[in-house]
Write a structure and sequence with these properties.
285 residues; five-stranded mixed sheet; Rossmann fold; homodimer; eight-stranded mixed sheet; alpha/beta
């Protein structure tokens, strides 16, 4: 949650996964996570606190990471804020090489860990050089402004989405997941209509946005990442009633398919319209 | 189809309807059509040629327009190109005050009427001052470049949409209908990725884009109109394989809800990003 407390230069990377990543076949995204952690001999923690069935979540990733010969893997089950403030647990998380945040409900996750020792430990691990991955709710939780609820269906509708305070690894964005599969463009447009300060980032299932320590980004997996930039938008959203569809003129949309890479040495030049997005997401807390 | 043959100043208006317009309750869009034609005592023709069940189509609009006390209403059933070249029929269409083009299949419609006397008569009627309305297939048929087939589902995919030659009342746009209800953004983005010359116009069900003779536009009905402008886009579409998802950076998106009006005296100022769209669609053939 802390937006200012982590002034250390960040050395780790973020892997933001749109949910339903392959856990049984080629497991491209999970394999990449392990590689980003430094390989299968590194210490991997699986944070299950977003889920009401944490043992079931752990069983899934225990099997997947076990199949990749990750020997040092363990769950972090958190059932209360007191547990999230356990100093020994937090110290262990801060020393992990990789932390995987499972799906579930991002509001549950933040209610349990927001502002706790575990929250600090996650930031400390990222600053130290760990890779932090989050899928579905674990992806949405990564931004400072977190999509909490949203009902917009066919069209953007004023007053139908609400934000909360996320973990805050990334600033000035809001992250949605299962994006194309659950047709969530309307709710992401609703967020941007009311919060043009934030860039909307919609991540498809079995797809990840990798934010590298070195300042590059990459899209990997099966789908695409959609970026919605409303900073140039002309809109009447301030004047209309709740539940009305806002006028939104000049929204900038970027569709970044799997395989796209920007910002690192050897990449194709970043289009000018994307360079702001790159600056914003790579300047992670 | 003629893109250059109609140099007369246009005096009529176009009502481009996204399908499934209300035909039984308040019939807002159909009532507006009749008003644009000059009222219920005017001559209304219903062109059913897009449909394989023309009598059923006529029965629907016969009932709807009858309920509005339109006395001079008649169907134009076209089953062959020979019929579409019938001079007496064409002369009658050219003199109509309003022409309503039903749904069905826009490829069927153009295969029957493209380049015929009826095609010319439609342009002549518009130039003379008639209102031409089209719904669903009848909406898609209105542009010079017509969306013929498209399969893109979750994402834009190179090579999955095809265009044909439409009636050509409007240039430089491609029109899709049932837009939000059938989740057609991906296929409209596919069109724009491969044809950045064209602006994509997606019209929701029971929603219409009215292009007025005086150069204004209005959105009416239940939903919204989505405009996709790819002219500033950076894309790799030229280099990727068929069926691949293109990178698309800096696509401009405009969401125009029902009630929006631009370009006519008394309207709110047209946002600069929308003025090109306005110029393009109001410069109808």
């Amino acid at each position: 949650m802390s937006e200012t407390a982590h002034a250390d230069p960040r050395r780790g990377s973020l892997l933001i996964i749109g949910g339903s990543e392959d856990r049984e076949d080629d497991m491209q995204i999970l394999e990449r996570f392990i590689a980003l952690c430094g390989g299968p001999d590194k210490r991997i923690a699986v944070l299950t606190a977003a889920s009401r069935v944490p043992e079931r979540m752990w069983a899934i990733y225990d099997a997947a990471f076990g199949g990749m010969n990750v020997t040092s893997r363990k769950p972090v089950h958190i059932a209360s804020r007191a547990e999230a403030n356990d100093a020994a647990m937090a110290a262990e998380v801060a020393q992990a090489d990789g932390i995987f945040i499972t799906g579930g409900d991002q509001k549950r996750l933040l209610a349990l860990i927001g502002g706790t020792g575990l929250d600090e430990a996650l930031h400390a691990a990222l600053a130290r050089g760990a890779c932090i991955a989050g899928t579905s709710a674990g992806a949405s939780a990564m931004s400072a402004h977190m999509l909490a609820d949203g009902k917009a269906d066919l069209h953007p509708e004023k007053g139908t989405v609400s934000l909360g305070a996320g973990i805050g690894f990334v600033q000035r964005v809001v992250i949605d997941q299962h994006f194309s599969q659950r047709q969530r463009l309307a709710r992401l447009l609703t967020v941007v209509a009311q919060n043009p300060f934030l860039l909307g980032v919609g991540i498809d299932e079995d797809t990840a946005l990798l934010i590298e320590a070195g300042g590059g980004i990459e899209i990997l997996g099966a789908g695409a990442v959609t970026v919605i930039d409303g900073r140039h938008m002309v809109s009447n959203v301030a004047d209309i009633r709740n539940r009305s569809v806002p006028e939104m003129v000049d929204v900038r949309l970027h569709l970044l398919p799997s395989g796209s890479r920007y910002g690192a040495a050897g990449d194709t030049a970043t289009p000018a319209a994307l360079s702001d997005f790159l600056k914003i997401v790579t300047n992670i807390a």
